[in-house]
Amino acid sequence: MSTQQKNLNEIPDEKKALRQKIMDNRTISREIQNDILDTFRHNELWLRAKTVMMTVSFGTEFDTHGLIKEALASGRKVIVPKVVPEFGGLELRRIEHFPGDLIPGNYGILEPDPLRTPFESGFDLDLILVPGMAFTEHGYRLGYGGGYFDRFLPSVGKRAVKVSLIDEAHVFSNLPIDKHDVPVDYLFTESRLIDCIR
């Protein structure tokens, strides 16, 4: 076995260990989240976006509930992904009411109710808020282990800007990455905007 093959094979175990370590200690204070949101809300990427995609936060994740409500109140088109385990992918659906258009889905996370929300192709997405536990300054992320976003993001057109909201404590110089990982374009932290495509 070559060194390169060995390294690629070890990545899942390394990711799993790091993911668990972060989960065991993860907290983002409300003050830090508000600082990040304040910067993000005043940025042109958010101000210009007419169609946005966001996940509904759960547990210790960065809280997106207020941002979803704000997007709906401002008339933006809001797309929320629904996990489809049997296909290992994401189904995009438009919501118009929060939380009324949502029901508990896989892992207890709120997802669009397919009986209340129309399917969307995602071709008109302007902005995607990509969830993650940790990131590098080059935009590579440590996700939650399902691989759903890693499979979804390559299908997104160049029009959609990929951003993530994360505290500085979870921005690392290096993370275990493999050839299937797709970086985000920008990171918003409490102290800076990181251009990952520079």
Class by alpha and beta content: alpha/beta
Q: What is the CATH architecture assignment?
A: 3-Layer(aba) Sandwich
Strand content: 15-25%
Rg over alpha carbons: 17 Å
Report helical residue fraction: 25-40%
CATH topology: Rossmann fold
CATH superfamily: NagB/RpiA/CoA transferase-like
**So how many helices?**
5
What's the topology here?
Layout lengths: L2 H23 L4 H12 L2 H5 L2 E3 L11 H9 L3 E8 L4 E7 L6 E3 L5 E3 L14 E3 L4 E3 L4 E2 L5 H5 L8 E5 L5 E2 L13 E3 L4 E3 L3
Parallel strand pairs: 1-2, 1-6, 6-9, 7-10, 9-11
Antiparallel strand pairs: 2-3, 4-5, 7-8, 11-12
Entry summary:
With 198 residues, this protein is α/β, with parallel strands linked by helices.
Walk me through what this model shows.
- The structure is a single chain.
- This protein has 198 residues and is of the alpha/beta class.
- The chain has one domain (3-195): Rossmann fold.
- Helix content is 27%, strand content 23%.
- A hairpin with a 5-residue loop joins strand 4 and strand 5.
